[in-house]
User: What shape does this take?
Amino acid sequence: MDYSETITRKRGLFDRLMGRSPLEGVIAANQLIAVWGAQGGVGVSTITAILAKKLHQIGFTVLVIEATATGGSLLRFMGKKPVSKGLDTMTHNKERIKSELDSIYVNVIKGLSILPRSGAPYSVQWHWQEDEARELYYIARRLAAFVIVDAGHALSDALGRGALSEADHIVSVFRPTPVGLDSATRFHEHCRYSRLEEKLIWVMNQAQRSGAKEELEFFTGEEITNCILWNKDMEILEQGASIPKSVQEETSDLLQQIMSANSARVFQK
Assistant: This one.
């Protein structure tokens, strides 16, 4: 199904998400969401998979890109086995990007697909450059209503950096530990200097104490209004399994923030 057809059929979603009465002709352009971890192991892949599954259940076409440099596990969250060929095993030929992407494209279920990083050693053949990353995301936007990028946490990786610069929204995940708050603060500084901070939506994951939100606000010097508390229901996600109610509620809140953010591409038909 064409992306625009998917959006048109699910037009009422935006009204529900944004808490408004139906407006005839309201649609949204394709959105690229980069899910970024302030540090490793904060649940980026899990949140990526939940967002993808939730959007797919609503009725959107979704493409997930495993851009994290330590990729190879995202397919497990979708009930698929890791693959040996992926974004890292492409031949170094920019003119062949589109055809090679087709060869590693994994269909999880109709309307939900993945471009995996692969389980092969990092950068076996393809060392991604900035212009190549931009081309990848340009192609991806034409394939689905929503592109969700598991961007990892390594700024040294061109695919991750490209996801940040090309994204409409950056979902930044952190844990409210001393190290986690420090990592989140440093990532905020990176986004501020790179003029990306307007895209930021914060997700506070696995919080076990109160006050973390206020601490991050203190360190960044800005009010953090988009912190979301995630719980252990997120730890296991298999294709076909129902998303726990608490996670559905949190995901709906996150989607509402995405659709109402300044960078959201919502317009009148």
In short: Residues 178-193 form the longest helix (16 residues). Residues 1-8, 21-27 have pLDDT under 50 and may be disordered.
